Amino acid sequence: MNNKLGKIMITGGAGFIGSHLTQKLINENNEVVVLDNLSTGNKLNLNSCIERKNFKLIVEDLKNQISDHLKEIDTVFHMAADPEVRTGFSDPKLAYEQNIQNTFELLENIRKRDIKQFVFASSSVVYGEPETIPTPETFGPLFPISIYGGTKLACEGLISSYCKNYGINGTIVRFANVVGSRARHGVIWDFIKKLKINQKELQVLGNGKQSKSYIHVNDCVNGLLFSAKHTKKNIDVFNLGNHDMINVLDIASIVCKTMKLENVDIITSGGTDDGRGWIGDVREMNLDISKMCNLGWNPIENSQASVERATLELVSESR
After folding, report:
1. Global pTM?
2. Statement: residue 265 has pLDDT above 50
3. How far is CA 245 from the centre of its chain?
4. Please, what are the domains in the chain?
5. Do 14 and 49 touch, CB atoms closer than 8 A?
6. Which residue has the higher pLDDT, 303 or 88?
7. For the chain, does the N or the C end have fewer beta carbons within 10 angstroms?
8. What does residue 188 show for φ and ψ, rounded to 5 degrees?
C-alpha cells in the first residue's frame, strides 16, 4: 500500500477514467472504496475488482448524506462529474448540479472528517482559449468558454478555499482529452457509432481543423497518481496531457482505417460559423506539461499513438 495515499475513496469510480484508476490501485494492493451512482458509470467496468478483499463498491449519489462512508478514508479522488463538455450549453443546470453542487456537498462532508488528501479531476477547458500555447498552469486570468469549463473552474475555487481553511492537502489535475477503453463519449466513440450506422459517410462537426492534445487513459492514470504523490503544497495544480496535438480530420481517418473502411466521404458540416464543433468548443488546446515532466513523469504514447490505441480498443468493445 502507498502510505501517502492510505485508504482511498474514488467518486465516479465506475466511470471511464475512474474505473481504470480503481483497477490500478486495487492491483497495487491499496484499500479502495468506490462511490458511484451508476448514472454514467457501469458496474461491469469494475469486474476485475469486485471479488477483491481490498475493494468495496457503494452505489450512492453525492447529493445524499455520505459522511459515514468517509470514515477511515485518508485520500479522496473526486472523479465524478458530468462527462460531456458540449451538453452544458443546452442544459447548464445539469453541469451545475453534477459538478459544482456535488463537489460542494463532498467537500462539506470531507471537512467534517480527518481526510488527508483531496485529488480533483479538472480539465484543460478551464483555460478557455488562452493566448499562450502550450499553456502552463500559471497562465491567467482564466476565462472558460463552455459551461462545463466554468463549472470545473468554480470547483477549483471551492477546493482551494476548503484546503486553505480546513487543512486539507489538495491536488488539482487539469486533463487534456483522455481516450481509451470504456470511454462512452468523445470524438472517437462518436465516429465509431456513426460509421456503424453509415459506412459510406462520416459527418465531422465544425471544419475538422480543431487541434488538441490526447492522452491514453493508462498514461492519464499514471500521471494522476504521480501528481498526487508529488504534491508538496497545501494546494497544487498540474497539467496532464501530451507534448503534441492531433486534429479532428486526422482522427476521422484513423477511425476509418481501423474499422477497415475505404472511400468514406468525410463531410465537415454543422458546428459554428467560425469552425468549432459546437458552442463552447475550443479550437486549439495544448497543455504545457513541463511541470510534471521535470518531476520525472512523461506520457508513454503521443497524441496520435494514444488515438490509434484507443480506437482499436473501442472498435473491439463496440462489436
Report:
1. 0.96
2. yes
3. 17
4. 8-178+214-240 (3.40.50.720), 181-213+246-285+302-317 (3.90.25.10)
5. no
6. 303
7. C
8. -65, -50
